[in-house]
Amino acid sequence: MNQASETRRAHASPLFAGLPGDIGVSFEFFPPKTEKMEETLWDSVLTLAPLAPRFVSVTYGAGGTTRERTHNTVARIVRETGIPAAAHLTCVEATKDEIAEVADAYWQAGVRHIVALRGDPPGGATKFTPHPQGYANAVELVAGLRELHPFELSVSAYPETHPDAANPAADLDNLKRKLDAGATRAITQFFFEPDTFFRFQDA
Ligand SMILES: Cc1cc2nc3c(=O)[nH]c(=O)nc-3n(C[C@H](O)[C@H](O)[C@H](O)COP(=O)(O)OP(=O)(O)OC[C@H]3O[C@@H](n4cnc5c(N)ncnc54)[C@H](O)[C@@H]3O)c2cc1C
Fold it and tell me: Domain for residue 151, yes or no?
């Protein structure tokens, strides 16, 4: 039995019958590289749709390497399903004009939610260096996108602290700046202990 049919069987069982609409979930997908992966992705989207996710999002490859594929995937979800879909977007190796172009194309395609990220330095570099005509970090990206279109903007948060942060308090200050710049939701990175998340949420 493949994963999708197993999930379908689980949804149909009495144990999960009350779940759709009753839990606040979102799902993150990465853009498919091949036709076969596209089929699997689409099968997964349709399998998960009955859970009525608040939104699904599609990741963005380092340096915009998945620019087309991320766009096509998000646009197709918006076009063919009723699920609100978000596109991840990073500042890596892009000018502000190029980012505006990508954002405009999303707006034209009916995408109203962007997960705005700085991104990781390309090629295994340890320090992030902004493009000379680009955004230096997610705070600037959020502010830039805010001026373009009234997108819903989500940003990242790190219950275990981002490695670039001087300390946990500085990381929280950075999150506050992103929210002050216009983000309305933070999505956390993985954490391994629930307590880590609850302490972070309290802070
Ligand atoms: C939910 C989620 C989804 C993601 N999706 C993707 C994706 O699709 N594609 C991808 O390439 N990556 C993705 N990432 C990874 C992300 O790009 C990296 O973690 C990246 O290193 C940081 O991006 P950010 O938006 O958190 O950066 P920012 O919030 O801009 O900053 C990162 C850290 O640097 C420090 N910092 C920033 N600005 C300053 C400043 N002015 N002074 C001092 N310190 C500062 C802060 O402490 C902060 O924690 C995702 C991460 C998460 C949590």
Answer: yes
To test the ligand 1 pocket, which listed residue (164, 172, 185, 197) has its Cβ within 8 A of the most ligand atoms?
164
What's the pLDDT band for 125 if we cut at 50, 70, 90? confident
Burial class (CB in 10 A: 0-12, 13-18, 19+), 76: middle
Question: Residue 203, exposed/middle/buried by CB under 10 A (0-12, 13-18, 19+)?
Answer: exposed
Pocket test for ligand 1, best of 137, 145, 154 (most atoms within 8 A of CB): 137
Residue 42 lies in a domain: yes
What range does the domain containing 101 cover? 23-202
Mean pLDDT of 152-158: 98
Q: Which residue has the higher pLDDT, 177 or 63?
A: 177
Number of separate domains in the chain: 1
**CATH number of the structural domain spanning residue 154:** 3.20.20.220
Spot the catalytic one: 28, 39, 80, 193: 28
Residue 134 placed within a domain: yes
